[in-house]
């Protein structure tokens, strides 16, 4: 499920595909690799960007210990 934040380009996705994974929001960005290259120093890399079906995903931990996920759909094919 994706939730759009009104007045912004931000979308938050909720996903429960891996029950053993830490709970945290999934932020959709245009490019995970660009986000990773410019990531705030306050975010600790848990899992570097890796390819997933349709794009890329990375996992970070914020200074408070919360897990967050960043993903893009950069390789997803648009149907004609």
List the helices and strands and how they pair.
Layout (H helix, E strand, L loop, with lengths): L1 E3 L6 E3 L12 E3 L3 H6 L6 E9 L2 E7 L5 E6 L8
Parallel strand pairs: 3-6
Antiparallel strand pairs: 1-2, 2-3, 4-5, 5-6
Number of domains: 1
Average residue-wise pLDDT: 82
Major beta-sheet overview: 6 strands, mixed
CATH class identity: Alpha Beta
Which stretches of 5+ consecutive residues score pLDDT under 50?
A: none
Distance between the termini: 24 Å
Number of strands: 6
Order of helices and strands: EEEHEEE
Structural class: mainly beta
CATH architecture: Roll
Classified in CATH, the superfamily is 2,3-Dihydroxybiphenyl 1,2-Dioxygenase, domain 1
Strand content: 35-45%
Q: Predict the CATH topology.
A: 2,3-Dihydroxybiphenyl 1,2-Dioxygenase, domain 1
Name its key features.
single chain, mainly beta, 2,3-Dihydroxybiphenyl 1,2-Dioxygenase, domain 1, 6-stranded mixed sheet, 1 helix, 8% helix, 39% strand
Concise summary:
The protein contains one helix and six strands. With 80 residues, it is mainly beta.
Describe the structure.
A hairpin with a 2-residue loop joins strand 4 and strand 5. This protein has one domain: Roll (2,3-Dihydroxybiphenyl 1,2-Dioxygenase, domain 1). It is 8% helix and 39% strand. It is mainly beta. The radius of gyration is 13 Å and the shape is globular. The protein has a six-stranded mixed beta sheet with strand order 1-2-3-6-5-4. The chain is built from one helix and six strands; from the N terminus they run E-E-E-H-E-E-E. It has one helix spanning 32-37; strands at residues 2-4, 11-13, 26-28, 44-52, 55-61, 67-72.
